[in-house]
Amino acid sequence: LLGLREGSWGTVWKRFAEAPATYGTVPDALRQARPEKLLPLLDSGESWPQENEVAEADLRRALLGLASLDAQAARKAILELESEHRHRREWVWSSLGRAPLVNALRPLATLATETAHALAASSVAELSQAYADRAWRADLAMLDVLSAVEIGEDVEAIRAVIQVVYRPWLEAGAVCLQDIVLAATGTYVATPAPSFEEGTCFLFTDGLRFDVAQRAKGLLEERGLECTLTSGLAALPSITATAKPAVSPAAALL
Predict the structure, then answer these.
(1) CA pair distance 181, 187, nearest whole angstrom
(2) Partner of 139 for a Cys bridge, out of 20, 211, 222, 229, CB 3.0 to 4.6 A?
(3) How many of the other CB atoms lie within 10 Å of CB of 210?
(4) Model pTM score
(5) How far, in Å, CA of 164 to CA of 75, rounded?
């Protein structure tokens, strides 16, 4: 009766859906109570955990299948899968952590959209500005995609997609930067460490990429803080032995 949600049972379902984790035994009971046949136009698939599991399995197979496509075709397929499956993020199984792939699909759709725009320019300044304006969203989306999945088979499916849509975009941007620097020596100038007035609290964060800084800015603003975000160029190569000394107080002495 709860799963069918008829009459007053619809109200009971709403109470369950508000905080499904509070009712730990209900999901197993719903699994056992699922009717042998569901009427597509009358019965809600959301009620039964099996329906969500079948949909997740279908989505997993579809994502794995994207490995055989080119980047453009894979991006189109991702957006179609997002349109097909996004309603499941409103299901209780999503909030219970039982629909990781559909939750990964939202940032994956963002990744598909953003990587459709090539990261290319004719100068370091143009490339830096292009990244600061928009391209960072692809990197942040990639992190969100990876953080949404934990189980091996889900991770495998996500990695297969990332290899198709993200890696070529990332590599093209890196090669573009390399070509610019090699063609015009001296055009890449690392940004010096910032200077502040006495009394300012200065926090150094190792490896604070611009995309992660955008996430930090959003979190701070949610807490009511006013934030200004600026960007700079890391020392080349951007590894500990080079980059840390470049932003240290002793940088001018090195």
Answers:
(1) 6
(2) 211
(3) 18
(4) 0.90
(5) 9
